[in-house]
């Protein structure tokens, strides 16, 4: 599961990082009347605006979408509240996600995310999870361009992350990122990609202040 993220880098800075990561032209799409560029945030919750990377013909677009996928056939946007994650095991068949899986895969660039670990006394301790080298995490995602919405793809947790939660988002390396965005990559290869992905991660306990989405400062990611 991935229900709270940290996104503190502005889109222009994300684009600069991308240029060093992939060999394609990158276009930062200006916000439209409905959206503004996401503000840097240490406590991003579903329904917030997030940066989304997609491949369009011969270039990469960095756009602004709502976190929580709204299919083109949805009667209203209420589905977004429960579609902020898509299980990799079922995304190819589930009606909510299968069209996006086939036609509009995306990457969601973040600094890190939070997960809550249950302790022996049933309390939940927030954990901050990020890259070992403090670089951006490029998460596999699905999006719906017509509703400007996106979701984070998850899989069964592996390694030390299993001790925190049984699910996790899927960070991709350079080759995996390009394969995920490439419209010619076959479905079987895509499913194998997300299941085999491994990425160096680090995690540590942080303040319970992150439990309240109104709290938003760098203090939230300081280790206890």
Nutshell version of this structure?
With 224 residues, the chain is of the alpha+beta class. The chain has one domain (5-112, 135-156, 166-198): SOS response associated peptidase-like (hypothetical protein yedk fold). It has helices spanning 11-19, 98-103, 174-181, 187-196; strands at 5-7, 25-28, 41-44, 49-56, 59-67, 85-87, 105-110, 112-118, 124-131, 137-144, 149-156, 167-169, 201-205.
Strand composition percent: 25-35%
Largest sheet: 8 strands, mixed
CATH architecture: Alpha-Beta Complex
The CA-CA distance between the termini, in Å, is: 23 Å
Helix content: 10-25%
How many domain units?
1
List how many beta strands DSSP finds.
Answer: 13
**What's the helix count?**
4
CATH topology: hypothetical protein yedk fold
Mean pLDDT over the full residue set? 89
**By CATH's scheme, which homologous superfamily applies?**
SOS response associated peptidase-like
What sequence of helices (H) and strands (E) makes up the elements? EHEEEEEHEEEEEEHHE
Overall outline: globular
The low-confidence runs, each spanning 5 or more residues with pLDDT under 50, are none
Radius of gyration in whole Å, from Cα? 17 Å
Overview of the structural elements:
The structure is a single chain. With 224 residues, this protein is of the alpha+beta class. The chain has one domain: hypothetical protein yedk fold. Helices cover 15% and strands 34% of the residues. The chain is built from four helices and 13 strands. Strands 2, 4, 5, 6, 7, 10, 11 and 12 form an eight-stranded mixed β-sheet that branches. A hairpin with a 4-residue loop joins β10 (137-144) and β11. The two termini are 23 Å apart.
